[in-house]
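User: quick one - fold this with zinc ion bound?
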Amino acid sequence: MNVTATMQTLQVENGAFLRQIREILPEFDPVRLGHEMHARIRELYPICRSITGNGVRETLRRIRQWIPLEIHEVPSGTPVFDWVVPREWNIRDAFIKNAAGQRVVDFQKSNLHVVNYSIPFHGKMRLAELKNHLFTLPDRPDWIPYRTSYYSESWGFCLSHRDSLRLADEEYEVYVDSTLEPGHLTYGEYVLPGTSSDEVLVSTHICHPSLANDNLSGMMVAAHWARCLQQIQRRRFTYRFLFIPGTIGAITWLARNETTVVPRIRHGLVLSGVGDSGSFTYKRSRQGDAVVDRVLSHLLDQEGLEGKLLEFSPYGYDERQFCSPGLNLPVGRLSRSVHGTFPEYHTSADNLDFVRANSLEETLRLCLMIFRVLEANRFMLNLNPKCEPQLGRRGLYRAVGGQADAGALEMAMLWVLNLADGTRDLLAIAERASLPFSAIETAVRTLEQHQLLEERIPGKKALGA
Ligand code: ZN
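Assistant: Sure. Structure tokens for the protein plus zinc ion:
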């Protein structure tokens, strides 16, 4: 192992949450997983994905080699709420050739060169006319922009501004070898059942072509989160992982599952842009104080992670659909740098160097902590609420009195005993006590072993009450 790798291992080993994650996943190896995720992003990066078509199918087929995805095909023309599943788009080749017959813009070199969903076209034209179909970034002259035309029938090419300046005033041959025909919208779904039918929804978009952070990072963390959960024997919640094209995929999934799965969703998270080196950003659900909002607020605030919280807004990724007013699901969004706020966003610079192995694994660790907190967060009732129970008699209090402050576990036990009146969950107790959730969780386990606490299912009366 070289010096950099050793340094990285040391940082990771000392990093947040590792001990707690190894309590549920003893074999958890963050450095190996980070490199594995990055290698798989490299494998999927060249595929030309879109909201429909073979690029998405191929991507899902590869993910199915890692987790047993169920792949769904929804026919074009299917009405989904106010929308209709579009025709399927596929592309084999596209180019602009100069008068000498050289490919000056070539889809084979980068799939970003073609405006995604470009309709088929073959013709010749002068530069002045061609320019109406070209997109560049003058202030980032070496980058290729990413553009789409999903819902308007047109064609276009994206290229670096520097290359566009080299185009001479001559006649060009333009060819877009694409098809836009009745077909299907494809999405993937993986369900890991728990002891309860209550569900946790994890959703990530799969519709961007060669963009690494915006797209592949979310897919990779979701897939590896699912793989980690497979190894955990006891899960309270059922976990549902969606790999769906942005917007129309979420709308399609919601329309098909509105009366079946949707009512069972208790918590949800959209993962997008989770592989860059920026710090974490969590965008609250429309509800604003859903359990998942409180979990992320706690993990980012209390547990020393650098991160910021954003209020809900009706713009962004598929949280827009999950949090539309008629559904209003408790679904927030986890990202690192926020879309649209960094120059690499939707350009060829969102590439394999822009996503980092250690950022990917750090996100995976946060996701596993979200799992831990969601699973352990319960309502508890102190069974001995009149004055403090005598902890010393049970061996739960330090033997020597008179010390200046109580130990961490003792403080956590005192808070739990005081606040566990069945009206607030453990997360609320951790927040009120300004203690890490893990300390509260340990105190609860200890007190339960001594029959001082029992779980109270909200809405049900406690035994003997
Ligand atoms: Zn995007």
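One thing worth noting: The chain is about 30% helix and 20% strand.
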